[in-house]
């Protein structure tokens, strides 16, 4: 269901712009690949060499540039070639590019919130598949920009192609709510 006021012109581009909290050029890459420092704060961190995971638990906050991600649990899953422990054992600085190449996916769970400016995405779970450059939001996902909102059962963002798919169902249909711009709408004349 889309809520649109009569007499106002709206473009579906607004809905696409709302989804672009992740898709806009470089947004997801800012979190995982940037010259700026990546800051992760949590109550606990567990590095499990056997399962090739790094888990941050309790009051997790990830910050880089103008993006802030909060959740209850963040797990980094290494690929089959991953050896995170050697990255930390060298005694020198960790080479982020080398670590990122070893990551299969990153899962954020529990009250997931991603904020960049006036754009906010929330869900119970968000999974970023590094190689496929795909983000999947599940558990009552909502993407909002200002007062505009987009909801569904499942939101899939393909960062490589720029394609976004919002899926709904009988209990939770896709819903887009767009508010009129505060800027006056120019009337077009046929001349």
TrEMBL record:
Domain Organic solvent tolerance-like N-terminal: start-end pairs: 40-162
GO-annotated cellular components: cell outer membrane; outer membrane-bounded periplasmic space
GO annotation (BP), single: lipopolysaccharide transport
Pfam families found in the cross-reference section: LptD_N
Keyword set, alphabetical order: Signal
GO molecular function: glycolipid transfer activity
Cited Gene3D superfamilies: Lipopolysaccharide (LPS) transport protein A like domain
Superkingdom per UniProt: Bacteria
InterPro entries: LPS_export_LptA (IPR052037), OstA-like_N (IPR005653)
UniProt-recorded name of the protein: Lipopolysaccharide export system protein LptA
């Amino acid at each position: 269901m889309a809520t649109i006021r009569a007499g106002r012109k709206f473009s579906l581009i607004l809905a696409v712009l709302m989804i672009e909290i992740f898709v806009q050029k470089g947004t997801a890459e800012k979190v995982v690949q940037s010259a700026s420092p990546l800051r992760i704060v949590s109550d606990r961190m567990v590095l499990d060499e056997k399962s090739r995971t790094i888990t941050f638990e309790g009051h997790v906050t990830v910050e880089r540039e103008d993006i802030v991600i909060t959740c209850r649990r963040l797990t980094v899953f290494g690929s089959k070639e991953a050896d995170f422990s050697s990255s930390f054992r060298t005694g020198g600085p960790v080479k982020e590019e080398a670590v990122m190449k070893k990551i299969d996916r990153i899962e954020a769970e529990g009250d997931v919130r991603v904020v960049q400016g006036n754009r906010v995405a929330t869900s119970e779970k968000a999974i970023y598949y590094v190689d496929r450059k795909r983000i999947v939001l599940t558990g009552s996902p909502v993407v909002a920009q200002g007062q505009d909102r987009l909801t569904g059962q499942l939101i899939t963002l393909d960062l490589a192609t720029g394609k976004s798919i919002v899926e709904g169902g009988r209990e939770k249909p896709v819903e887009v709510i767009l508010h009129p711009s505060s800027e006056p709408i120019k009337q077009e004349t046929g001349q």
